[in-house]
């Protein structure tokens, strides 16, 4: 709205943003002589909204057309390229997850990423009961498959209680 953008365009996975904010807060505490209040990250849990299935991209060729058929091919290529660009800008998995995991590893912090593989793409404004039920089923199956990880996570969180 106006000059403001949805956070999903710049930080669709805000794990590193949260870690940065915690680091800056701890630095500020140290700067004002309150180092005893600094809190070290013990466990980072990143909860995803689900990974959509990968789709085949037919063509991303964008070139200066010399005839109507090439114009149509170039248009389709530009459209596919546009979709890929939007997907890259709004991706909450992939590089963002890899970076967060690496940073946690560097600072000796436990990192868990939980995000089910979805059987179909689910739009943000989805209202179809069948699509939403499929998404819930995908999530339920994922949680069952990850039960050992979830039990480990619960023990880790319990161990970091004050």
Strand content: 5-15%
Secondary-structure element order, N to C: HEHHEHH
Shape designation: extended
Number of helical segments with 4 or more residues: 5
Number of DSSP strands? 2
- Physical arrangement of strands within the biggest beta sheet: 1-2
Largest sheet at a glance?
A: 2 strands, parallel
Structural class: mainly alpha
Low-confidence stretches: none
Distance between the termini: 41 Å
Determine the mean pLDDT: 85
Evaluate the radius of gyration: 21 Å
User: What is the helix fraction of residues, given as a range?
Assistant: 40-55%
Provide a descriptive summary of the structure in words.
This protein is 51% helix and 6% strand. The chain is mainly α and 162 residues long. It has a two-stranded parallel ribbon. The model has no long low-confidence stretch (mean pLDDT 85).
List the helices and strands and how they pair.
Blueprint: H1 15-31, E1 43-47, H2 68-90, H3 95-106, E2 110-114, H4 129-145, H5 147-159
Parallel strand pairs: 1-2
Give me some keywords for this one.
162 residues, mainly alpha, two-stranded parallel sheet, 2 strands, 6% strand, extended
Summarize the structure.
The chain is mainly alpha-helical. It is 51% helix and 6% strand.
